[in-house]
Design brief:
It is built from 14 helices and twelve strands. Strands 2-8-7-6-5-3-4 form a seven-stranded mixed sheet, with helices on both faces. Strands 9-12-11 form a three-stranded antiparallel sheet, with helices on one face. A two-stranded parallel ribbon has the order 1-10. Bound molecules: pyridoxal-5'-phosphate (PLP).
């Protein structure tokens, strides 16, 4: 099915938006007088509403009725945080001085990131190339404001991890979505980007291993991206949230190891998924010093620095052992195998799952309505997954499974699908 890849992502939340508005109206209509309605910024109109609201409500109803639910829609790991990281945080929290404004990234922390990049990725960086962010989510959310003026063009993937779009929309930029399709192994295909768009683009977001599509960088891809970015003077922003969740003995590296990447790119590096510290919000922007300085300048207007015990926890993670990270990757792979083998046995196309904690599956039977399919899958099999369309138009016809259950539970979920009308 041919789709316009420039169609705004938020259109796909239309149904939920209507649901949400109707709900709000009936719940609050009596309390609010129309004349006292606050006029909020038009900026908010750039965003749709919670796509998962309808799915969540139905899940709660089904659970209340005692239906067995397999929730494979959430993006939060179920693995434990390593003890040495928790201890570093709790010990630091006992010192009164650590409760003051930190005002800066600790030099030991910046140094720990540099050492980690050398040890883990064989990439040489210096402290002026590193800054903390409160998760790649927050960093990406603010980076657009540093790089773009109103109306500037930004290149984003479709399907797109939502904050890539939000960051550019907050900046008033115009996203141009490059499609990630099965035809090109769900990878960026720069030859498909029109020259006039490439000339205008300010920055391009690439994220591999990729959420939601589960693809990983093919050999030579980063080199091709660097060449493209150099030719059109585009800043490449690589989101490396899943460098440690990559399967089948493939090495999960850093984009910055590519020759020329440090000159035209920056990389978000997150501890969230590698060390199961999602709630602590520990990530870094790494790369071109001028971009780092610019984002620092913006954030210094609104922020007094990362909580010092969290900085100490980050140092412990970066300087500590990495065996548990490798072991965890092995466990994710077992889950990936249980799911992909199971779905394939049911007659589904083998899903794409080369990396990340997600698997991207084409809906069987050529169905395209991913939201309807997810509702039906939950009703009939009790399996909750995320509709592909919530990540953009090219996600239609697909669903995303999160590998947040152990293999035996995943096999049970597959059995539940087999025993429903879907097999
Ligand atoms: C592609 C991608 N980038 C960034 C994030 C968020 O990372 P952080 O916890 O560092 O904000 C996620 C979380 O699911 C993700 O999937």
């Amino acid at each position: 099915m041919e789709r316009n890849c420039q169609e705004p992502l938020q259109n796909y939340c239309g149904e939920c938006l209507i649901f949400f508005i109707v709900f709000l109206h009936s719940a609050c209509g009596k309390m609010w007088k129309e004349e006292s309605m606050m006029q909020f910024s038009k900026r908010l109109d750039r965003f749709g509403d919670e796509i998962f609201a309808a799915l969540n409500d139905r899940r709660l109803q089904l659970e209340a009725q005692g239906k067995k639910i397999y929730n494979m829609s959430v993006g939060t790991p179920d693995f434990a945080t390593p003890v040495h990281i928790k201890e570093a945080l709790s010990q630091a929290a006992l010192l009164d001085d650590n409760w003051k404004y930190s005002l800066r990234d600790l030099p030991e922390l910046l140094q720990a990131v540099c050492s980690y990049y050398r040890r883990r990725f064989q990439v040489e960086i210096t402290p002026d190339m590193v800054m903390t962010v409160y998760g790649s989510q927050e960093g990406m959310g603010h980076l657009g404001m540093v790089l773009c003026d109103e109306g500037d063009t930004v290149l984003l993937p479709d399907p797109c991890y939502p904050v890539f779009a939000a960051g550019s929309l907050l900046a008033g930029a115009e996203p141009w979505y490059y499609p990630l399709t099965a035809e090109h192994d769900f990878l960026p295909y720069v030859k498909g980007i029109p020259e006039e768009i490439a000339r205008k683009a300010k920055y391009m977001v690439v994220s591999l291993p990729s959420n939601p599509v589960g693809s990983i960088a093919a050999p030579g891809l980063y080199e091709e991206l660097v060449e493209f970015a150099e030719k059109y003077d585009i800043l490449l922003v690589h989101d490396n949230a899943y460098s440690d969740i990559i399967f089948d003995d493939v090495y999960g590296g850093s984009f910055l190891a590519t020759p020329g990447a440090k000159e035209i790119g920056v990389e978000f590096f997150s501890l969230s998924k590698s060390f199961n510290v999602t709630g602590a919000r520990i990530s870094f922007l790494i790369g071109r010093p001028d971009v780092i300085a610019a984002l620092r300048k913006l954030r210094s207007q609104i922020d007094f620095g990362m909580f010092l015990p969290v900085q100490q926890a980050a140092i412990a993670a970066l300087n500590g052992p990495l065996e548990s990270v490798k072991e965890q990757c092995r466990k994710y792979q077992e889950r990936r195998d249980a799911l992909c083998n199971g779905l394939q046995e049911l007659g589904w196309d083998r899903p794409n799952g080369k990396g990340t904690m997600f698997v991207w599956a084409r809906i069987p039977g050529g169905r395209m309505d991913s939201m309807d399919f997810c509702m039906e899958l939950m009703e009939k099999a009790g399996v909750i997954v995320t509709p592909g369309a919530s990540f953009g138009p090219h996600g239609e016809g697909y669903v995303r499974f999160a590998l947040v259950l152990p293999p035996d539970k995943i096999r049970e979920a597959v059995e539940a699908i087999r025993n429903s009308d879907f097999s």
